[in-house]
Amino acid sequence: MFKFHMPTKVIVGENCVLNNPKDLMLGKSALIVTGKSSGKKSGALDDVIFVLENAKIPYHVYDKVENNPEISDMAQGGRLARECGADFIIAIGGGSPMDAAKAIGVYAVNESGEDGEFKLYDIFKGEYKNKPLPMVAIPTTAGTGSEVTPYSILTLHNEKTKKSFSCVDSFFKVAFLDGRYTVSLPLQVARNTAVDAMCHLIEGYTNKKASPSSDYIALEGLRIIGKHLDALESGSLALDACTELLWASALGGIVISQTGTTIVHSMGYELTYFKDIPHGMANGYLVYEYLKRIDSKRVADCIGALGIESLENFKEYLEKILPRVCNFTEKEILDWSEISIKARNVASCPYQATRELEIEIYKNSLLKE
Amino acid sequence: MFKFHMPTKVIVGENCVLNNPKDLMLGKSALIVTGKSSGKKSGALDDVIFVLENAKIPYHVYDKVENNPEISDMAQGGRLARECGADFIIAIGGGSPMDAAKAIGVYAVNESGEDGEFKLYDIFKGEYKNKPLPMVAIPTTAGTGSEVTPYSILTLHNEKTKKSFSCVDSFFKVAFLDGRYTVSLPLQVARNTAVDAMCHLIEGYTNKKASPSSDYIALEGLRIIGKHLDALESGSLALDACTELLWASALGGIVISQTGTTIVHSMGYELTYFKDIPHGMANGYLVYEYLKRIDSKRVADCIGALGIESLENFKEYLEKILPRVCNFTEKEILDWSEISIKARNVASCPYQATRELEIEIYKNSLLKE
């Protein structure tokens, strides 16, 4: 048995926000959730404000979302949504603002506090008394796919890792994909996020939960990214390519909405948490060692869809676009593997993933000296 | 710019209704909409009743849906839904019961009558004061794709054709695809409906509105049908093949939800209305002549995805599985083309479709002596 579910309406193309104002306005008062700079630098915030002001829809901008949002900040965002009477949310940014919006949407209508019924950690239950606020997503990076998944990945300082929640109402109602918002990204950010999208597609296709409803989408996404590998290396991404990469990234999100990810992601979280390595880059360091251990035609399918000759060539490509940014000790690897082996997506790995195996993968990862 | 939207949750596989009872029960009282025999013969009605009775959900069975449902009957169905207090609908059957359910869902909550505000034909406006009832679909043929489209095709006797309405709330919430419900279909019905699915995929892929969000889905659907062409010819469709054809048919529905159909469908409606030719068969008579006139690599892509060597071979295949069931006169063709050229989807044809051209296509169709 397999399933397919992805209720988000996706609108793709230049000026799609300006040209589809009705799809942006899901209510009478908006909370815009974004990072410190991504909304402004990308031009997306200006487009959104233009549409809202034109329609006389009041809005508040919450631009305090940090990279890797922490759960207590999200509850604060929920309080702000209540205080300003927002009845819908517009998320602008990379994975962090989009994941933050999903959490804020829950906290906004399920009041959390010391005396409240709804405790901070109840968000991980995935079932809430009140439906989250309806939400729109405008990604400003092409990697996370969060705009079409129900997942929100939050950071938990006391568990020293990230943890995700999801519920069917955490899907965005609408997602706008416009290459104008990603065309000015710093090259390394474009690369890291493209590698993240690649990993979603690869981990979905090689996943234990891979099915006829995810396989063909995964290969389509990889084919699209494959067209732009040279430009990602040289840094010559044109506007059209940026829109195509946003679409490929959304396909990655659609795939993992069906399959989930694997140990590449759960192991990558530790690199991000302890070494501050950007999420996509962290996955990129690990994905070759993950693939190497899979005994299936599916690895060749992925590499072939990317238009790359061999798994070794794929490794070389990753080494070129992902510079080494730090090193690690044996002790660190032991700590990381202890946490990462407990992750839920370990079960989706196509082979038996043990702590010993994860230690091996960390050791041989592209991060090493 | 392109869009993608298909909010229906699709559940595929043997016993999927019995194994996912929560997804079937969208409310507290069900109206089951089905044809005279399809629900019973397929075994789907028994499965549905088993689940509902087990959960003590009251239900009414409306099994009066004829082939090609007429609009006034739908309003009657809506009245019945009100009278029995149904708050959700379960559609079981081919395209007719599913399209009927969509209309009944609208009439149930938007009361129509001589004094009522909501007139019978207001259904074609696509915007309603009250949201249609939530609905579940269980197809018992693998062709229509109606389980994943917002379209409902209704018959209008005073306009001597069919006309469709759609609105975003006309998507089914859930669709269950189980080959057990189609494995006992008469061979010609299996063929006709498979040809209908094929036409959705082909018309979507060659459509003026084809886009990166529909193309790869169309080719995937054609590849799946291609695997089963021999079994469709010989009549040796196994259970697995039936489930795969249901999935391919759903992919066809997903495609036309983005692109709409073309003149194959609008011209086919007349063959159904005036000659009582089953819908899929009618499309099959026309699709070769439609494709022959397209000057694009896309025709070869479709034929190639089916695993067929040439367009001529495709024609031969259709002639084998679609027997001629009647003939027509010059006068009839004039009448049909007069109606069909007015259809909305004429504009989606990849070439300029004129009445003269449609006359040519009818004349040369596989229906001719």
Architecture overview:
Two copies of one chain form a homodimer. Chain A has 369 residues and is of the alpha/beta class. Helix content of chain A is 49%, strand content 14%. Chain A has 16 helices and eight strands. Chain A has helices spanning 16-19, 21-24, 38-42, 44-54, 71-83, 95-109, 187-205, 215-227, 229-234, 239-259, 263-275, 279-292, 297-305, 311-321, 330-340, 355-364, and strands spanning 2-12, 30-35, 59-65, 88-93, 135-139, 151-156, 161-166, 174-177. In chain A, the strands form two sheets. Chain A has a six-stranded parallel sheet, with helices on both faces. A two-stranded antiparallel ribbon of chain A has the order 6-7. Chain A is globular. The model of chain A has no long low-confidence stretch (mean pLDDT 95). Strand 1 (2-12) of chain A pairs antiparallel with strand 1 (2-12) of chain B.
CATH superfamily placement of the largest domain in chain A? Dehydroquinate synthase-like - alpha domain
Q: Class of the largest domain in chain A, according to the CATH hierarchy?
A: Mainly Alpha
Subunit arrangement of the protein: homodimer
Mean pLDDT across residues of chain A: 95
Output the radius of gyration of chain A.
20 Å
- N-to-C series of helices and strands of chain A: EHHEHHEHEHEEEEHHHHHHHHHH
Molecular shape of chain A: globular
Residue share in β-strands of chain A: 5-15%
Order of strands, widest sheet of chain A: 1-8-5-4-2-3
